[in-house]
Amino acid sequence: MPVARPASPSIDLRTLLRGVGQMVLQANAVTGALLLAALALTDLRLASAALVGSAAASMVAVLTGSEPRDIEQGLHGFNGALAALIAVLFAPSSLAAIALVPVVSIGAALVQRAMRVPLARWRQCPYSSPCLVVTALWLPFVASQHPSDAATTAPLTLPAVADALLSGLAQTTFAQGPWAGMLIVAGLAVASRRAAAFALGGAIVSTVLLVASGANGTSFADGLLGINGALA
């Protein structure tokens, strides 16, 4: 008798959205949709890249025989989405970004596949390491220096602080602005109110500590002081 083979997992829109949602550690399609909205609010190219990256990485996971449940939960899509976002943001030209998006997304998926089994022996996960590995192969060759904003000051009014905190949450997915941050908080809250509260609390603690240490200026207004606290 022929041996029945397990059916390959289907990659539908929910799977792709979960891959985007996993950028903030939430396997929730609604979260992914709200993150895409935040990215689209910043730049439609970012939203498109995240979706393409999630699709490409998920397809590679299917073709390489990854665990169906992991694929459906978006655990393979999010590294592709992250790598694609970085390509759009830092590629030297639009044509280069178009060429890089599928390449880095596929590359991130292959690196994740290679890392997963060795790390599983120590009960660890790759997390965003595959994205970082692939990005390190090309970003240093095109990165440019950005001028310092040390001399710039920003008012510490209540609205300015609120905007900075929300912008910090937006920066966790490479989006920008307080409205994008509000969408990300909403996306987190849909999946886990606790996660949303911790992300907001982390952004507050990080921003307060860095402002107390003398940080200010454009970094404060853009939310760069809160991003690491929100991620942690």
UniProtKB/TrEMBL annotation:
Keyword tags: Cell membrane, Membrane, Transmembrane, Transmembrane helix
Q: Where is the protein situated, by its record's location annotation?
A: Cell membrane
User: Gene3D superfamilies in the record, alphabetically?
Assistant: Ammonium transporter AmtB like domains
> What's its membrane topology?
Multi-pass membrane protein
Q: Which GO terms describe its molecular function?
A: urea transmembrane transporter activity
Q: Keyword check for Metal-binding, yes or no.
A: no
Q: Where are the transmembrane segments?
A: 20-39, 46-66, 78-104, 125-144, 164-188, 195-215
Quote the protein name from its UniProt record: Urea transporter
